[in-house]
Design a protein that fits this description.
This protein is mostly beta strands. The protein is 8% helix and 56% strand. About 4% of the residues have low confidence.
Length: 434
């Protein structure tokens, strides 16, 4: 196994596989929750009038006059392609397996007085992953088909309080208790155990879990019957993950096969504004703009508690891996047209730029400029509301050359090649106003 990509793969994979395959639109986050909101392109900060408001803008709860309960299910189905020639004997043509990553949202709101509303939401702001076909990477892994798969999920419990200051203005806030979990398996490459001497550690397996917390604050103003203006601010959330890493073949060379690790991952500030306009009775037009502070995620630091592993990882340069992500602006647009008192049609569009540069593009860490097209419909009857939504996200193809990644400070930080990605996301929700 003389290919230098194989020898250096571990210096990237162990540091970056934390985020492997889970990078979708909006960095580490889903692009939204709620069938109505998602089918309107995720432009919902300025409307926030159904049970998904706990995610979009908690101030919307201040205008509720009846108890409200809702439930949502969503299915994220991503597909990735990668093609590259990394050496004379290392040609790769890979495609991910068809997989389902399920998300949900449950929420209940209770008006306490004419001004005060309390609520509780339980939902998945992050839920995605990737499963590659091991056979597609056999030219890189010494003709052995290892497992290459990852999954990231976050569940959030959000108590909510909203106060209607007047018939035209409401404030709201949530305290967000977050539980994160990450699982993955892959071949990590050859490990340098001494200068010029490499060993194959075999299959690599890791699982992480941890907690963090944050706040969401929202404002919703209705300066006119036909106009809403909303503002949402989400504070950063740091998940402190713990993990046990296994590389079973290390026992062949007399090294421990397991080590505990500590790793922190930071979800950034989010500041978003939205406007909702009702030019005629049956038509609603929404537009949102949101800023995410992804430049905070400049690098990924791993602490290995086993001293032998700590020494090995230091030799291989994986304790700190630069990511060099950048801040992004998301633009969202949506429309709803009510065919009757009971039926509504919806559509939308959004643009979400890539967070990472070419210099850190890798098959296990791929970011894209996304364009999303959405559609859906809703049915309302005597307090019952049933909504269906559909999203199609197409990532802009990325071509990374060896010359581009050759300028990076840390060698082999990225893999040259052609990257393609798209997602299909159906959602369905049911809610009831008592």
């Amino acid at each position: 196994m003389s290919n230098p990509w194989r020898k250096k793969t571990i210096s990237l994979v162990l540091g970056l596989f934390l985020l492997a395959g889970m990078i979708r639109a909006n960095g580490l986050n889903l692009n939204g929750l709620g069938s109505k909101a998602s089918s309107m392109g995720g432009a919902f900060i300025g409307l926030a009038d159904d049970f998904s408001l706990v995610y979009w803008n908690p101030a919307g709860a201040g205008f509720l006059t009846r108890p409200l309960f809702g439930a949502l299910a969503t299915d994220i189905m991503p597909t990735n392609h990668y093609q590259a020639t990394l050496g004379p004997d290392t040609a790769i043509e890979a495609k991910t397996k068809f997989s389902h990553y399920l998300g949900f949202l449950l929420a209940y709101y209770q008006p306490v007085s004419d001004h005060l509303v309390l609520g509780l939401g339980f939902y998945t702001p992050s839920e995605t992953g990737t499963t590659w076909k091991g056979d597609d990477f056999k030219s890189l892994t010494g003709d052995v088909a290892y497992d290459w798969k990852s999954k990231i999920g976050m569940m959030t419990l959000s108590p909510l309080v909203a106060w209607k200051i007047s018939d035209r203005l409401s404030l709201g806030a949530t305290f967000n208790l977050n539980y994160g979990e990450m699982k993955w398996s892959q071949w990590p490459g050859q490990l340098e155990i001494s200068p010029g001497t490499y060993a194959d550690p075999g299959q690599y397996e890791e699982g992480l879990h941890g907690f963090g917390w944050g706040l969401t604050v929202g404002l919703l103003a209705k300066p006119a019957d036909w106009l809403n203006i909303g503002l949402t601010v989400k504070t950063p959330t740091t998940i402190k993950f713990r993990s046990k890493i296994n590389m079973y073949s290390l026992s062949v060379i007399g090294y421990p096969t397991r080590s505990e690790v500590r790793r922190e991952v930071k979800w950034p500030w989010f500041i978003g504004g939205g406007i909702s306009v009702k030019p005629v009775e049956k038509l609603t037009l929404n537009a949102d703009a949101g800023w995410s502070d992804w430049s905070q995620l400049k690098s990924l630091t791993t602490i290995y508690l086993d001293p032998t592993w700590a020494d090995l990882m230091e030799v291989n340069g994986v304790a700190i891996r630069p990511l060099d992500w950048k801040d992004t602006w998301q633009l969202r647009f949506g429309v709803e047209y009510r065919l009757s008192q009971h039926f509504a049609l919806r559509a939308g569009y959004y643009h979400d730029p890539a967070t990472g540069p070419d210099q850190t593009m890798h098959v296990l860490l791929s970011t894209f400029d996304f364009n999303g097209i959405t559609a859906g419909f809703g049915y309302d009857w005597n307090g019952l509301s049933v909504n269906w939504g559909f999203e199609y996200l197409k990532g802009k193809n990325r071509q990374v050359t060896s010359e581009e990644i050759g300028t990076t400070v840390v060698p082999f930080l990225a893999m040259p090649g052609t990257y393609e990605m798209y997602q299909v996301i159906p959602t369905i929700s049911v809610s009831y106003r008592f």
